Amino acid sequence: MGGYHEGQRAVQQRAGTSGAADRLARGFHDALPAGARDFLAEQPLLIAAGSGADGLVWASPLTGPAGTPDERTIAVAGGLPDGDPLAATLAAGPAPLGLLAIDLHTRRRIRINGTGAPAEDGLRVTAERVFGNCPKYIARRAPETAAPAGGGAGTERPELDGRDRALIAAADTFFLATTGPDGTADASHRGGSPGFVAVHDARRLTFPDYAGNTMYMSLGNVAATGRAGLLFVDWERGDILQISGQAAIDWSRERTVRFPGAQRVVDVAVERVRAVGGVLPGRWVLEERSRFNPPAPVSSPA
Q1: Contact 302/200 with Cβ under 8 angstroms?
Q2: What pLDDT does 95 receive?
Q3: Following DSSP, what letter does each residue of 149-202 receive, concatenated?
Q4: What is residue 66's predicted lDDT score, i.e. its pLDDT?
Q5: Which of 185, 192, 202, 220 could link 98 by a cystine bridge, Cβ 3.0 to 4.6 Å?
Q6: How far is the C-alpha of 271 from the C-alpha of 49, rounded, in Å?
C-alpha cells in the first residue's frame, strides 16, 4: 500500500500540510513492528472500519484477544457483535478492513489498513499499512470490570431518536470509519469536550476537525468518497450507537468559528442508525479528559 491518494493530497494541499504529511509518511510500515505486536496482544477491544453489504460505511467494535502469528497477520479470536453490518462482508472476505487499536488508559493507539477474512478461530487481518498517532484528544479511561457481552442484534432505524441524541450530546469520544477511492478502509479516533458533536435534528449532525497529525487520512477519504461511519460508546453501560451516512467537509470560516478550536467541520447526513445495548465485554471509568480539548459549542450550531 502506497502513500496518499488524490483525495488526501487535495485536503493536505488546501490545509497547507503537504510537506509535514510527506515526512510523516516515512513512518508508514507494511508490517507490524515488534512493539505493535506486543501492544495488540494486550487490547481487549479493537475498532473496525469497512463497508457493509448495504454499501454503507460502518465503524464497529471488534473484541479480542488479538494475536500476531507473524509480522503481517492479526488473529482476532473474538468477533463482531451479532448482526453487525460488517459481519456479512467479512464472512465473504477477504475484504478491505481498517483497524484502530487504542489503549484508553495509556492513550496509546495504532492504526492498521489491510484486509480481513474469516478463519477457524475468528478473524484474520492482513496488515498492509501500519502507523501510529499521537494521544491528543484521547480521554483517559481505566478498565473497571470484565462484564459479559450481550445485547443481541440491536435495533436499526433511518434516523436518530431521543436516546441516541442524548448519548451523542454526552460523548467525549467517537470512532470514525472512512473508505478511500480504492476501497481501502480506515478507522480513527475523534475526541473533544462533551457536546463537541452537534446534532441538528434526527438526520443531521456536525463534528469539528481539530489540529491533528496533518496527514488527513480520514478527511481525505471523505473528500474522495463522501461517506463515513461513526461509532459512539456508553463506556459505563457497554452500549454502542453506530451511524452511517453521507459526509462532506465545510471549510467556511462562518461555520468553523461556531466550533471553538476547529479548523474545519464535517457534516453528516444520517442514512442508517444501529443501537445495541450492553454489547461490549468490558466497562471503563473516566479518569480525565484531554487537556487539549477545546470547549464545546455553547449551543448546537447549524
Answers
A1: yes
A2: 96
A3: P--TT-EEESS--HHHHHHHHH-SEEEEEEE-TT--EEEEEEE-STT-SEEEET
A4: 86
A5: 185
A6: 17
**HSE of 230, CA atoms in CB hemisphere, 13 A:** 29
Q: What's the average model confidence in pLDDT over 203-213?
A: 96
3-state secondary structure of 103: strand
Cis peptide before 260 (omega within 30 of 0): no
This prediction has a pTM of 0.96
How far apart, in Å, are the Cα atoms of 234 and each of 146, 159, 238, 255? Answer: 15, 19, 6, 29
Distances (CA, A) of 151 to 4, 7, 59, 231, 243: 38, 37, 17, 16, 17
What is the model's pLDDT at position 5? Answer: 96
Domain residue limits, the chain: 6-288
pLDDT (tens digit, 9 = 90+) per residue, 141-155?
998 876 655 556 689
> CA–CA distance from 277 to each of 81, 157, 163, 232, 283 (Å)?
11, 15, 12, 12, 13
Q: Which fold has domain 6-288?
A: Pnp Oxidase; Chain A (2.30.110)
Rounded CA gap, 1 and 15, in Å? 24
Which amino acid is residue 272, in one-letter code?
A: R
Angstrom distance (rounded) from CA 152 to CA 222: 31
- Residue 189, CA distances (Å) to 69, 70, 177 in order: 26, 26, 9
Asked whether 108 and 102 are in contact (CB, 8 A), the reply is yes
